[in-house]
Specification:
Strand content: under 5%
Largest sheet: none
Radius of gyration: 32 Å
Structural class: mainly alpha
Oligomer: single chain
Helix content: 55-70%
Shape: elongated
Number of helices: 9
């Protein structure tokens, strides 16, 4: 009995075709979504072992491409520029990026003025630049910069409207 015949008989008995098809579909549709990088990598490794195309040195590059395509867009964008074709190195880089990203998000959440979503931030706390704009507008108005003239001109009817009103009167 050759290895190929044994392998085929073994797979037919212990790994039926419908189960293989389900695993293949699950692998092809695998996306990181809200999973951590560690969970995504574990799930990827669990499913990739069923596909000999991705095994060995020849499949390393294809394995990296498939792994990258399942990542969240922001991780994928950051990792695509690296051009890494070694799977363990790619996974390590993705895990570091994911941990750093989560740490950065946690830091900014902890330092934001609204720690509780039910709390209402004081006026302008979310947009400190608004105070600058209000100050500039007040300065311009107090110094007679022409803002009042613009406002008055907008309040008066336009030339065409004035003539239209006169002609429509009985």
């Amino acid at each position: 009995m050759t290895w190929d015949v044994f392998k085929w008989a073994f797979l037919e008995k212990y790994f039926p075709e419908d189960v293989r098809n389900n695993k293949e579909m699950e692998f092809l549709e695998l996306k990181q979504g809200k999973m951590t990088m560690a969970k995504y990598e574990t799930k990827f490794e669990e499913l990739v072992r069923y596909f000999p195309h991705y095994q060995g040195r020849d499949g390393e590059s294809s394995k990296c491409v498939k792994f990258l395509n399942g990542l969240r867009p922001e991780v994928k964008q950051a990792m695509n520029y690296q051009g890494v074709c070694q799977f363990p190195l790619l996974v390590n880089m993705c895990q570091i990026w994911d941990e750093d990203s989560r740490d950065r998000a946690a830091y900014y959440r902890s330092t934001s003025p609204m720690k509780n979503k039910n709390d209402v931030a004081p006026c302008g706390a979310c947009r400190p630049w608004i105070f600058f704009i209000i100050g500039v507008l007040c300065f311009l108005k107090m110094n007679g910069s022409g803002i009042e003239k613009e406002e008055r001109r907008l309040e008066t009817p336009l030339h065409g409207e004035d003539e239209l009103r006169r002609s429509s009167r009985p």
